[in-house]
Write a structure and sequence with these properties.
single chain; about 475 residues; alpha+beta; Alpha-Beta Plaits; 10 strands; about 10% strand; disordered C terminus
């Protein structure tokens, strides 16, 4: 009897812990989510222009209570263009305000236009998995609307490369409906049960509200003009700008800061990469800390007797002779539940380490490739300089020095009567004449070769290989 009471209390405590954990998660989501405002635009009336925003809010609450017998928890203030912004302080008030039938027709005997927020908080959304690309979202939305009346819309989710995923974000106007679906873990689509999970919005990318750049804040902006968020031009502020939509950061047809902007996607990729690297570095530091050895004083801090968990599990449990306590049962169940989580953590740990190492290797290879390309470019520049210098030297030798030597030899031959000197001058003259003749012949032979080398270049032959032979042959001839 005592054992059954202990087991029942253990199960109840586990259920209580699970419910407390889920409740705390929802509480954190509520605190992190801010409710967008409802906008009320009054029609032209002198009665409204003379009333403060606090008085209009008081009149709204009175009209609301008379119609619905309920007072929502809201605050409000005037916005741009004398529109009244209504902010809900809790999810119940937000959902009541979302239903347009609950609103009064007039406030202070004045008609108004109500604008519902286009985007709901992230706690009102969830992700439907295995929603294939071949499915028509509109048809599925109509089917889901009959089963879940609080469903607002379905939105296809895309990857960083703008490729459609088999994931769809479902927006609801009831937080209780979202909680129920998340607790069940599935949503009914026709006769299928698709998995659902909590929706986490992407990282919010801040931007300057003056020039709409993502690289600094508004306080740090050095621009002297206020740009238009629609057309990215400098013109007087006009809420009804009719120019073409153009992003100031990428030049595409969307507003600045849109999720489809390549610059925003690049910043989000960098943020996610930094988070993975930091998480991996923390795991590495944790592993290094666990490998540290400490010198303990056994006299002051004696070691506790250690028994393996497997030996404890293999021992037969005799409840009659050794009754277990609540703490021992809870500890055993906790250890049993943590075993698969340890394996998952090990897999994640190894995967993160491999990802970090692969990123480092890829970065090193990229640096090596860039350095090698720069070195090849420098070598090609040096080779080109040597070629030009060699050509200049050959031109000076064959067009200036050798003809001058030949003329000097002829003059010396005429003025010299020594037979040996004349023989030497004749031999030198013949050598110079042979060099000039061979030079002219090489020039005549290289003219058709230039067309061949140009053809070879078009076929993919490198420039250095195609033109490498001519300077070397000329240089040997000059020697």
């Amino acid at each position: 009897m005592q054992e059954s009471i202990v087991m029942q209390s253990t199960l109840q405590s586990n259920n209580t812990i699970t419910e407390t954990t889920k409740a705390s998660d929802y509480k954190v989501l509520k605190q992190s989510s801010k409710f967008p405002p409802y906008s009320i635009t009054f029609k032209r009336s002198p009665q409204v222009e003379q009333v403060t925003d606090r008085k209009l809010l008081e009149l709204l609450l009175v009209e609301w209570k008379d119609k619905n017998n309920y007072v929502p928890d809201i605050t409000g203030r005037f916005g741009h263009g004398k529109c009244l912004l209504i902010f809900a302080n809790d999810e119940t008030s937000f959902e009541e305000l979302f239903n347009q039938q609950n609103w009064p027709t007039k406030i202070n005997d004045c008609e108004f236009d109500l604008k519902i927020p286009r985007v709901s908080p992230s706690i009102y959304s969830l992700v439907i998995q295995q929603f294939f690309n071949s499915w028509n979202i509109e048809e599925v939305f109509e089917d889901l609307k009959t089963l879940y009346p609080t469903l607002i819309k379905l939105t296809r989710m895309y990857s960083f490369n703008n490729k459609p995923l088999n994931l769809v974000r479902a927006d609801f106007c009831s937080l209780q409906q979202v909680k129920k679906l998340l607790d069940d873990g599935r949503i009914t689509i026709d006769h299928m049960k698709n998995l659902v999970k909590q929706y986490h919005p992407p990282a919010k990318i801040s931007k300057c509200m003056k020039c709409y750049s993502h690289h600094h804040s508004t306080n740090e902006c050095t621009s002297q003009v206020q740009l238009c968020i629609r057309c990215s031009l400098d013109h007087p502020y006009n809420n009804n700008c009719q120019n073409e939509i153009k992003c100031i950061n990428c030049g595409q047809d969307h507003y600045a800061g849109h999720s489809a902007c390549p610059e925003v996607q690049q910043i989000r990729r960098q943020i996610s990469q930094n988070q993975r690297e930091k998480r991996t570095q923390l795991l590495i530091n944790l592993e290094q800390d666990q490998q540290l050895h400490y010198n303990n004083n056994n006299q002051s801090f004696p070691q506790l007797p250690s028994t393996s968990i497997q030996q404890q599990q293999q021992q037969p449990q005799r409840y009659s002779s050794q009754p277990q306590t609540y703490a021992s049962i809870l500890q055993a169940q906790t250890q049993h539940q943590q075993q698969p989580h340890k394996n998952d953590r090990n897999h994640v740990y190894i995967e993160n380490i491999l990802t970090t190492f692969s990123n480092k290797i890829e970065y090193r290879l990229q640096q090596f490739e860039e350095r090698l390309i720069n070195q090849v470019i420098e070598v090609e520049k040096i080779v080109d300089n040597l070629k030009s210098t060699t050509c200049e030297l050959e031109t000076v030798i064959f067009e200036t020095i050798l003809p001058s030597i030949k003329a000097i030899q002829e003059c010396s031959f005429v003025n010299t009567r020594s037979t040996s000197t004349r023989e030497d001058l004749t031999r030198y003259k013949n050598e110079v004449t042979n060099l000039l003749t061979r030079k002219n012949n090489n020039n005549n032979n290289t003219k058709p070769n230039k067309s061949n080398t140009s053809d070879n270049r078009t076929k993919g032959v490198p420039k250095t290989i195609a033109t490498k032979q001519t300077p070397s042959t000329l240089f040997n001839d000059s020697e």
